[in-house]
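re: that complex we talked abt at group meeting.

here r the seqs, copy pasted straight from the sheet so there may be weird spacing, ignore it
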Amino acid sequence: MPRPIIIDTDPGIDDALAIMLAAASPEVKILGIVAVAGNVGLEHTAANAASLADLLRLTCPVGRGASGPLWRRDTSSATEVHGTNGLGGYQLPTSTRPLEAGIPLCARLIETSPEPVTVVAIGPLTNIALLINQHPETARKVERFVIMGGGTLDVLGNTTPAAEFNIYYDPDAAACLFNFGVPITMVGLNATHQALVGSAHLPRLLASGGPVAKMVAHLIASYHENHQPSDESAQHDSLALAAVVDPSILTTSHLHVDVENIGRLTAGMTVVDHLGRTGKPNCDVAIDVNVTQFRELLDSRLSQLDISLTGQGG
Ligand code: RIB
Ligand code: CA
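got the structure back, here u go
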């Protein structure tokens, strides 16, 4: 039985690969995709979500969520990493599908799903906080929030020394989720920086020559992240998605996590309590990654996706 998921996302180069992986994985069923402002503005993230859904022939609804953080006005997008349009300049056909109001869509999908829903949040958590505030009893029905965000141990931040982009962009929203009391898996930079992916790791996909291969080749080449010597970069969001498809990819520790949302130097920091001193554990924190297993999953699934989209193979 595929696990029903909602993807909350700010596509975004690595978001795009995560959505492709979800579309290619029979272990999950995408109930809906909800866009949020983050890497680039909502006008682009929503359009990119719709165009990706068209490319991947997804029949699920797509929603437009928050156009900015709950309250902060001192955080900005990441066009220097994802390009002005959010996809490194890659041009997908403009979608004509109607977009729904994102938070009501998310609430409806959770309420109407016959099975408990996993929300995979791979952008800033503004939509998640709005869902919690506007539909608290619905949000409590979520089986688990699997988020790409934060960091601990050897990698705390990529936007400031203390904060990762998704959490830094809206720390108040993140604090709301971590204090809500529903199961959370946190896939932070300490894990995603282990999961570097470059063209050398996707041989089957890139040999397939289909629409997914063409787009992924462009995305990898244009993803100005980490400045690795090769074209390798941390595929943050597809690691979070992969953890839902195959939980054995991650090793996690059950720890207490809260978010600093007022610090002058530390706003957006995920404060992970490895000492067990500040409170009851509320989060499964990714500590280690089976990188070979992750890369194999990505290459095999995305190459199969291309074959299915181009109608080759049986
Ligand atoms: O810090 C990495 C995260 O921020 C990823 O989700 C990336 O897409 C950006 O949203
Ligand atoms: Ca993202």
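couple things i noticed - The radius of gyration is 18 Å. The mean pLDDT is 95.
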